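Q: What structure does this chain adopt?
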Amino acid sequence: MAPEWARRGIASKLVETAEVGARLVQFRRLELLATLNGVPLYRKNGCQQLEQIDVPMSDGMLVPGVHMEKQIA
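A:
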């Protein structure tokens, strides 16, 4: 993302919109895999950390991530 667009609430609005859509189709829970940079955003929006995992990339590198969830019903 371009730095001039940081901290304007765009990511929070995307998360909120996804949550509204999930509720409309009667989902009760959201699950996601967050990058370490994204964890604070998802925590701010009510997600809880389940576990930290490493995601293998095609070149063999491991990218750290966090499995998270949020109850919405």
